[in-house]
Amino acid sequence: MSHLVMLWPNSYLLCFAVAAADVAAWCGGKGLRRMAWARRPLSPLSPSKTVGGMVGAIIGAFVVLTLLGTMSIGLLVAISVGGVFGDLLESMVKRQAQVKDAGCWLPGFGGLLDRIDSLLLALPLAYLLG
Question: What pTM was estimated for this model as a whole?
Fold first, then answer.
């Protein structure tokens, strides 16, 4: 999260794009589940994170970055791939701690950490690649 300081002029844009890509990943995972290739899990750590979700995140990040006028390949990779793998990293931590939700602030949504987990890898990647 300290990379927000390094990316301060664009921090709002990046946080918005990561959140939109996270929603697009969920939509892609649900919407593409009819196709066998889209149902394949990305990792055994979190079987609900699928290839379809990754495709949705890439499409969502592309659309948001294009609409905001900041489209670049580096930011696309940072936001879409970094966001999905940030989710997987947080899932790994929760599984090792043997908890379903990381908090009770947003019950049913995984807690506060689940709202910002996509930023864990997306921000450092955006700093390096953007």
Answer: 0.86
Mean pLDDT across the stretch 89-115?
71
- The separation between the first and the last C-alpha atoms of the chain, rounded to the nearest angstrom, is 16
Q: Which amino acid appears at position 114 of this protein?
A: D
CB 61 within 8 A of CB 125: no
What band does 105 get if pLDDT is binned at 50, 70 and 90? low
> What Rg value do the Cα atoms of the chain yield, rounded?
14
Residue 56: which residues within 8 A CB-CB, separation 6 or more?
A: 24, 25, 26, 27, 28, 29, 31, 32
What are 4-12's contacts with CB under 8 Å, separation 24+? 4/123, 6/127, 7/123, 7/126, 7/127, 7/130, 10/70, 10/130
pLDDT, tens digit, 9 for 90 and up, residues 39-51: 999 988 888 889 9
Cβ contact 79:14 at 8 Å: yes
Residue keyed to tokens 């946080």: 15
CB atoms within 10 A of CB 116: 17
